[in-house]
Write a structure and sequence with these properties.
There is one protein chain. The protein is mainly beta and 188 residues long. It has one domain: Calycin beta-barrel core domain (Lipocalin). Helix content is 0%, strand content 56%. It contains no helices and 15 strands. Strands 5-7-8-9-10-11-12-13-14-15 form a ten-stranded antiparallel barrel. Strands 1-4 form a two-stranded antiparallel sheet. The protein starts with a strand and ends with a strand.
Length: 188
């Protein structure tokens, strides 16, 4: 494995120490590698790491779904293999991504979402992998003001691809209203 070694430098009175960055993306590992010092959950996204061709469809209203939008969804290890970043490049020009960090203290993923629509702060989802699903929640009332969550679910996760759905659910998760679906196949 090729290692990137930084030599100690003195810049503006600050001393930078030598560090090795073995888990950053390289020509041999273009999506980086999981750092063995990271919590074991860093591997929750292992099948998603890489690039997928996807079809995205979102709801216009209660009875109508918009036309399918082609997109590429790329997942990679960042921060020297201690976190996961994803980025979507959509044919409609509405791109987005997330920074995913696992907190051993709270035993859950903290996922910070950003998009081409600039916001003053990033929305955050929390959750975990359960079998072949990764389920994340962000508190959000329904349009009628009922308490609930916007739930994101990665499902049918395999080395060949995955599915994703964004939906509003009530607090007891007895009612779900999907608003966005994505179907992905790994690029070969």
């Amino acid at each position: 494995m090729k290692k990137l070694l930084l030599i100690a430098l003195s810049v503006g009175g600050f001393q930078l120490q030598a560090q090795q960055f073995d888990y950053l993306p390289t020509a041999a590992n273009p999506y980086g590698l999981p750092n063995p010092k990271a919590p074991k959950e860093i591997r929750d996204f292992k099948e998603l790491i890489g690039s997928c061709d996807c079809k995205s469809v979102s709801r216009i209203d209660q009875n109508t779904w918009a036309d399918t939008v082609q997109m590429t969804w790329v997942f990679k290890y960042i921060m020297n293999g201690l976190a996961v970043q994803d980025e979507t490049i959509k044919a409609d020009g509405l791109h987005s991504g997330s920074i995913r960090q696992y907190s051993a203290d709270s035993a859950r993923w903290n996922v910070h979402y950003y998009s081409t629509v600039a916001t003053p702060s990033l929305r955050t989802w929390y959750g975990n992998r359960k079998g072949d699903k990764i389920i994340l929640y962000s508190e959000q009332p329904s349009p009628q003001g009922n308490p609930g969550f916007y739930r994101l679910t990665f499902s049918d996760i395999s080395d060949s691809g995955y599915n994703w759905v964004g939906e509003w659910v009530d607090k007891g998760e007895t009612f779900a209203y999907p608003t966005w679906k994505i179907f992905c196949k790994k690029k070969i």
